[in-house]
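Input/output pair, single chain:
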Amino acid sequence: MAGSICGCGTAYYGKRNFAHDGSYLTTEWITIFLVPIFPIRSLRVANIGEATGRWYFAYGWSSQEFLVLSKLGPSFKQVASTYLYAIGFAIFLVSLALRDVLTGDSVWSYIVLALIGVWSMLPWGLRCRAHRKSEDIKKI
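Output:
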């Protein structure tokens, strides 16, 4: 399973293609400082335990028990979604660094900040939509 030290190693990112049994597709990544660099494989997993962990100021650990249902090559949609979100997050960090420029009195600065807010909420919205879609399929 995935493991890392100081954010360098492997980690699972993403939840996609929810099934009626509660399983979903996730991708194992090689990470450097928690940034996904290269996808290793995708897995269909089901959660079988509660997430546990303890976080301190700059260090922490967490654990989630999974039942691996199948192992696949990296899912293109999953990889593309993760890279797009990482790019959006990088843009957000740059905008924070340039906040004096972006928080001027121009209308453009408010538009940029609104777009950054929408981008940061995108994975949550897509995940909620996928859950609803899987629930609709379960009812049929």
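DSSP finds three helices and seven strands in the chain. The longest helix spans residues 107-139.
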